[in-house]
UniProtKB/TrEMBL annotation:
One Pfam family from the record: MerR
Location of the HTH merR-type domain: 6-73
UniProt-listed CDD domains: HTH_MerR-like
Organism: Nonomuraea montanisoli
Gene Ontology MF terms: DNA binding; DNA-binding transcription factor activity
Phylogenetic lineage: Bacteria, Bacillati, Actinomycetota, Actinomycetes, Streptosporangiales
Record flagged with keyword rRNA-binding: no
Keywords: DNA-binding
Entry annotated with the keyword DNA-binding: yes
Name used for this protein in its record: MerR family transcriptional regulator
């Protein structure tokens, strides 16, 4: 091997393709040998060593643009550069792990968009006998809430957890779910709204379910998007919500108005 090896042999020895070797040449990472009398470029031990070093750093995740300066650096700079590369790789690994976890959560649709506590509460609503349609509407409303009022959502879940321990509250909310099928002029809507408002006023901890999801900015817009999600304008459910809010405002409870900013 006095005259060295061909590019094909060099690539095979190092474990890369000929195309990769040529790419390293193009980037200036490995100096291209001169041609011998037969017209072949012969790679000696120095070129092979440089190829091995370049291939090893590239395989470790070092960007090709950084390999040249890295190989030409002194020991101290080389160590510092490797530490920086390790930090970047760690960040990429953490990002990939987070993406993988998201994919796993996507297998369970709720968990991709909601925290585990919220998913557990949705399952609890189903266990309490709430209709599937009501649970689905609640899920969608909570997904909106996590995006529009993220700072208050965890506390909101705590209030819901506590309220579901009260059979009276559960009965009222179930009645509200049934009201979705009522006609808009059904007199029971006003009766149910009054009962709900009275319950909230008599139970301040439960009232926080209504007042807890109020954003610091664009409060009315965000609140309306969440509170009326899935309710058609003029429907029995929408009218019921409006009546409850009116009664609570009359009692001094701060609830954003649709026309306020």
């Amino acid at each position: 091997m006095r005259n060295g090896v061909t590019i094909g042999q060099a690539a095979a020895f190092v474990g890369v393709t000929v195309k990769t070797v040529r790419h390293y040449h193009k980037l200036g990472l490995v100096e291209e040998p001169e041609r011998d009398s037969s017209g072949y470029r012969r790679y000696g031990s120095a070129e092979l060593l440089r190829l091995v070093q370049t291939r090893t750093l590239a395989a470790a995740g070092v960007p090709l643009a950084e390999i040249g300066p890295l190989l030409d650096a002194d020991a101290e700079r080389f160590a510092a550069a490797l530490a920086d590369v390790e930090r970047q790789l760690t960040e990429r690994i953490e990002e990939l792990i987070a993406r993988r976890d998201t994919l796993h959560r996507l297998a369970d649709g709720d968990r991709a968009l909601l925290p585990d506590r919220a998913v557990a509460l949705l399952e609890r609503l189903s266990g309490l006998g709430f209709p599937a349609e009501e649970v689905a509407a609640t899920r969608e409303g909570w997904v909106l809430a996590t995006a529009l009022v993220p700072e208050g959502f965890d506390d909101y879940l705590t209030h819901v957890e506590h309220a579901l321990e009260d059979p009276r509250f559960v009965a009222l909310i179930k009645r509200g779910a049934e009201a979705a099928a009522w006609e808009p002029d059904d007199p029971r809507i006003a009766e149910l709204a009054a009962a709900m408002a009275d319950h909230f006023l008599a139970n301040p901890e439960h009232l926080k379910i209504v007042t807890g999801l109020q954003a610091r900015t664009e409060a009315a817009t965000r609140y309306k998007l969440i509170s009326l999600h899935g309710e058609e304008q003029g429907s029995a459910a929408a009218q019921g919500v409006a009546l409850v809010e009116t009664k609570l405002r009359a009692a001094g409870v701060r609830i954003p108005r649709p026309d306020s900013h």
